[in-house]
Amino acid sequence: MRHSLSGRFLILTIIFVMLAEVFIFVPSVARFREDYLLARLERAQIASLALLATDGMISDELEQELLENAEVLNVVLRRDAVRQLILSSDTMPAVAATYDLRDPMPWVLMRDALARLANPEAQVIRVIGEPVRDAGLLIEITMPTEPLRMALIDYGLRILALSAVISIFTALLLFVAVRRLMVTPIRRLVDAMMRYAEAPADATRIIRPEGRVRELRKAEDALQALQKDLTGALKQRERLAQLGEAVAKISHDLRNMLSVATLVADRLEASNDPTVQRIAPRLVNSLNRAINLTEATLAFGRAEEPPPKLDRVALRPLVEDVVENDRLSADSAAIAYLCEVPAGMMLRADPEQLHRVLSNLVRNARQAIAATGASGEIRIGGCETAEGWKITVSDTGPGLPQKARDHLFKPFHGAARKGGSGLGLAICAELLRGHGGRLELAESTGTGTRFEIILPLGLAT
After folding, report:
1. Of 173 and 91, the one with more pLDDT
2. Phi, psi of 439, rounded to the nearest 5 degrees
3. What's the mean pLDDT in 336-363?
4. How confident is the model at residue 379, as a pLDDT?
5. Which CDD domains does the entry link to (predicted)?
6. What is the pLDDT of residue 419?
7. For the segment 68-82, what is each residue's pLDDT rounded down to a tens digit?
8. Which CATH class is domain 305-460?
9. Residue 330 and residue 367: Cα distance in Å, rounded?
10. What's the pTM?
11. Could you tell me whether strands 124-129 and 138-144 are parallel, antiparallel, or unpaired per DSSP bridges?
């Protein structure tokens, strides 16, 4: 039980309540001692006034009875600076200590009470006080300490017993309350985690927040959000695995088809037709890139991309090749392509992967403009900054929808057009991460979109 939260809380509650009772115990015992002594003074005062009323004409037996009733050994009255012995016993032991109860300090009362409890020796003490101030009498008594100490012990035991009962009862109430308000919800939270861990892909095992305590409710909300994200990620991973397997199968057959197409393209290069001679090299280059891509997909066999093969690349010719290929891909007469890359700009990158990134961005820009049915413009620029090489691809299309901006670079979530998979931007971002760079959406409004590619200058070393 001491290893559980509720058990430890129960033990700590009992300890703290007992400590609180100890701080109450000392003043209570001091107060009890003061009342005990004042009661003896009052009884002595009454006995002395009764004796004075009879002018001292009482028998020795009656005098002894008055002393026993007051539980004192003798009584002295002080009036007008005169001490008068009113009642006295036959034997009078030596007085061990004198206590004055006229306006005593609290700490003095507590000190004397604890000292009496700690001293088991039988002694005789003198007590001075004014039990009834209006009587104008100062009473001085001597009394044994044994009855006082026994009364203090009896009172202390009763206080401790009552404290123990209060502590246990309070602890049990707090135990039940904490168990109901905290331990049970925490246990429910742990059980929900364990159930979910057994089958994280099962959406029915996601916790439903029901906590009434604010902190626990926040924990349940956070766990629910985490479980939803994890379940979605697992489902997406499964879909990506299935897609990867399908792509590998398709790539295998596609490679064979492209090999045949390459042989045909090689023969086309021997044609004397000027148009064929101009187009054939681009066709061969495109087929070679497609074959290399399918072979890389088959060799890797996973969703990740192979590491880049860095080389010095002239950016402007690469951009011009991307633009020419995009012009041949569709009827893009209504779209103007502007290459604003400086002629001598060189950077270090994998030319094939960078070609894929730019092709994806330019194709997305063209499709966005074509979807509006109006003419448009695509600009590709490049420059070198203190941060690194920057390549920009901008268009005059309608901009990305909010859903695409919220899930940008996430496969199957960031599609900007109906029927798209959202894989293009995700692939671009992954390829650039392999270079140590990044792809950013710099701007997207109703008048156009601009993407920025940042490649670190450190790649040049």
Report:
1. 173
2. -115, 130
3. 92
4. 95
5. HATPase, HisKA
6. 43
7. 888 888 888 877 666
8. alpha beta
9. 10
10. 0.43
11. antiparallel
H/E/C letters for each residue in the chain?
CCCCHHHHHHHHHHHHHHHHHHHHHHHHHHHHHHHHHHHHHHHHHHHHHHHHHCCCCCCHHHHHHHHHHHCCCEEEEEECCEEEEEEECCCCCCCCEEEECCCCCHHHHHHHHHHHHHCCCCCEEEEEECCCHHHCCEEEEEEECHHHHHHHHHHHHHHHHHHHHHHHHHHHHHHHHHHHHHHHHHHHHHHHHHHHHHCCCCHHHCCCCCCCCHHHHHHHHHHHHHHHHHHHHHHHHHHHHHHHHHHHHHHHHHHHHHHHHHHHHHHHCCCCCHHHHHHHHHHHHHHHHHHHHHHHHHHHCCCCCCCCCCEEEEHHHHHHHHHHHHHHHCCCCCEEEEEECCCCCEEEECHHHHHHHHHHHHHHHHHHHHHHCCCEEEEEEEEECCCCEEEEEEECCCCCCHHHHHCCCCCCCCCCCCCCCCHHHHHHHHHHHHCCCEEEEEEEECCEEEEEEEECHHHHC
The tens digit of pLDDT for each residue in 212-233 reads: 777 778 888 888 888 888 888 8
Amino acid making up residue 217: R
CATH class of 201-215+229-304: mainly alpha
Measured between alpha carbons, how far is residue 158 from residues 39, 116, 153, 162 in Å? Answer: 20, 18, 9, 6
Domain layout of the chain by residue ranges: 5-171, 201-215+229-304, 305-460
CA 18 and chain centroid, separation: 33
Is pLDDT of 420 > 50? no
- The rounded distance, in Å, linking the Cα atoms of 354 and 174 is 67
| Separation of alpha carbons 317 and 323, rounded Å | 10
Question: What CA–CA distance (Å, rounded) separates 321 from 377?
Answer: 17
For the chain, the farthest-separated pair of C-alpha atoms sits apart, in whole angstroms, at 161
Edge-to-edge order in the sheet of strand 389-395: 335-340, 376-384, 389-395, 448-455, 438-445
